[in-house]
């Protein structure tokens, strides 16, 4: 009896049927046949006919040959992996260099600070990486490569699923895993046991002649195809997200509202295929804002909770509903999400002109400069008349601190982000604000090029600390500014993204497919039972995997042990007894 399971070939055995083993090995791959046998460009065969027609035909065949060769290279898995690596590499500049689509202001600052490399970056389209010609070329080539690779593989895999397991090679002992034994069971009984056993192990079984062929592990090829299909889904989701996306920001002061139209945004950017009609119809109003902070310890003044209480509605005549928006918990309306990004304070001021009339009244948003919400801002007054009734313009700029440390603290910076001791520090200007020129201007900055600063009685620049309820009086009866109180503001981002669900599904499918292709092994098992000269039955079992694996001999050994429960092994006859039986 011989029950050895080998994981190698016997080099002393002559190869009598190479075609059977080679066929068994080649059919384990889902790669199209033309990938496994690359044709030489232009090798169409045939005899070239003489004359111009023959030369034209030959040239056409050469061009077609090179085109076919190029297509085979493009749709090969090797090129697909190279393109995937290049796409990842091409994304690096988009993370290191400011992008126009993300922050145009930072791009302008980069150009001013790097006047040598900025023109080069401009020519290489490094400020617009994801819409550049070279990035798009890699992206499209990768998409075509994956599609051209997957389609023929899918059809071939379907054909393999419908096909029967290949017949057993004549020499099973040439397989990587092999075992044999003698038994008293009849060959038909052994083959029947093999069919039952292998079928119970979820092998596809086919009996032909004196052998049973079985195959298992199709999920490996299915996982491989699923992984590459998922990559295409990810590419499509990424493209859709870039073409049909929109993103806009809006700063809303407590009590004010917002309607989802282009004119309402402070800043807005979108994909090339996104139009104003694609905006979801909704609006909301900021009712209140709650912010809590850690009181002491190393995390003092760290935000614990940001919550914006809003009233929102869908459609022009939608019913109003109340809800809250918190950090990482956006409001979802239609296909849009409203995120809470930041918050700050808006001092409420009343400005009177030289005639005693109210020239401006309302809250003015000041932008935070540190974690304690020390904020800077400006107040611009365009409808103003001086003491003589002449039209003019006023501008105030300065700081707001929610918690002033006191005159003895020696600093104007806020000591806490909470509204405990609010103070305004302002200076005043008069002149041309530059608004009548029609040029875009930052509402949070004051252009003082064409303005004059008010002077105090001692000749110094007029600057004053103002508490709620106090008034800053301008010299020579030019007017006044009263600090009425403080409101809060919140900054929201309205994002419309398409393809996020497809991207998530593609990522999960890619992980599942990759796991299947890595951990599932495609393998075949053959069982042959033939009568021996002594009247017993010789049983042979062999296994073949797509790749070398130590699990294959172990699995074959387990199958052999299960087979021997129904077809037990008996001792093989010795050479002396065989010779005696022959005499």
Automatic annotation (TrEMBL):
Topology of the protein relative to the lipid bilayer: Multi-pass membrane protein
Q: Where is the composition biased (Acidic residues)?
A: 573-583
Q: Principal place where this protein is found?
A: membrane
GO BP terms in the entry: cytochrome complex assembly
Annotated Gene Ontology cellular component terms: membrane
Q: What taxonomic lineage is listed for the species of origin? A: Bacteria, Bacillati, Actinomycetota, Actinomycetes, Kitasatosporales
**Alphabetical keyword list:** Cytochrome c-type biogenesis, Membrane, Transmembrane, Transmembrane helix
Query: Under which name does UniProt file this protein?
Result: Cytochrome c biogenesis protein ResB
Show the stretches that span the lipid bilayer.
79-97, 133-152, 225-244, 501-520
Which residue ranges have biased composition labelled Polar residues? 1-10
Q: Can you say where in the cell this protein is located?
A: Membrane
Q: Where is the ResB-like domain?
A: 77-556
Ranges for region Disordered: 1-43, 546-583
């Amino acid at each position: 009896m011989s029950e050895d399971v080998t994981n190698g070939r016997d080099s002393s055995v002559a190869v009598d049927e190479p075609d059977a083993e080679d066929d068994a090995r080649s059919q384990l791959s889902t790669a199209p046949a033309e990938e496994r046998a690359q044709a030489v460009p232009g090798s169409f065969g045939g005899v070239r006919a003489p004359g111009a027609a023959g030369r034209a035909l030959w040239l056409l065949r050469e061009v077609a040959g090179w085109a076919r060769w190029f297509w085979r290279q493009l749709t090969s898995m090797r090129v697909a992996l190279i393109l995937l690596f290049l796409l990842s590499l091409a994304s690096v500049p988009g993370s290191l260099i400011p992008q126009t689509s993300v922050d145009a202001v930072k791009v302008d600052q980069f150009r001013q600070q790097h006047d040598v490399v900025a023109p080069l970056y401009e020519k290489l389209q490094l400020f617009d990486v994801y819409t550049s010609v070279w990035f798009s070329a890699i992206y499209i080539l990768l998409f075509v490569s994956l599609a051209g690779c997957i389609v023929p593989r899918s059809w071939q895999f379907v054909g393999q699923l419908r096909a029967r397991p290949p017949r057993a090679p004549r020499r099973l002992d040439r397989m990587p895993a092999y075992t044999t034994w003698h038994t008293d069971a009849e060959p038909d009984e052994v083959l029947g046991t093999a069919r039952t056993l292998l079928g119970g192990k979820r092998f596809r079984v086919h009996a032909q002649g004196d052998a049973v062929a079985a195959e298992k592990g199709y999920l490996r090829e299915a996982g491989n195809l699923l992984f590459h299909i998922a990559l295409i889904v990810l590419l499509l989701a990424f493209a859709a997200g870039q073409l049909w996306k929109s993103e806009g920001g809006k700063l809303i002061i407590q009590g004010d509202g917002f309607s989802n139209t282009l004119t309402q945004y402070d800043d807005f950017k979108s994909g090339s295929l996104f139009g104003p009609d694609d905006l979801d119809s909704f609006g909301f109003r900021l009712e209140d804002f709650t912010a809590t902070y850690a009181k002491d310890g190393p995390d003092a003044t760290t935000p614990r909770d940001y919550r914006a209480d809003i009233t929102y509605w869908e459609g022009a005549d939608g019913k109003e509903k109340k809800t809250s928006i918190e950090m990482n918990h956006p409001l979802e309306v239609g296909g849009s999400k409203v995120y809470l990004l930041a918050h700050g304070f808006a001092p409420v001021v009343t400005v009177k002109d030289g005639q005693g009339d109210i020239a401006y009244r309302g809250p003015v948003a000041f932008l935070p400069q540190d974690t304690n919400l020390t904020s800077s801002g400006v107040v611009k007054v365009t409808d103003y008349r001086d003491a003589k009734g002449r039209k003019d313009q006023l501008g105030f700029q300065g700081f707001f601190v929610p918690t002033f440390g006191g005159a003895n603290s020696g600093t104007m910076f806020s000591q806490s982000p909470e509204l405990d001791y609010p103070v305004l520090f302002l200076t005043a200007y008069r002149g041309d604000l530059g608004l009548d020129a029609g040029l875009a201007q930052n509402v949070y900055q004051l252009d003082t090029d064409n303005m004059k600063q008010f002077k105090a009685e001692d000749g110094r620049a007029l600057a004053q600390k103002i508490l709620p309820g106090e008034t800053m009086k301008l010299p020579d009866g030019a007017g006044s500014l009263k600090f009425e109180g403080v409101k809060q503001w919140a900054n929201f981002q309205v994002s419309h993204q398409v393809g996020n669900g497809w991207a998530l599904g593609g990522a999960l499918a890619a992980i599942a497919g990759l796991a299947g292709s890595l951990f599932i092994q495609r393998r075949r098992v053959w069982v042959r039972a033939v009568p021996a000269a002594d009247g017993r039955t010789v049983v042979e079992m062999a296994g073949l995997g797509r790749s070398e694996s130590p699990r294959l001999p172990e699995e074959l050994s387990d199958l052999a042990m299960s087979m021997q429960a129904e077809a037990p092994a008996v001792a093989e006859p010795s050479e002396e007894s065989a010779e005696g039986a022959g005499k």
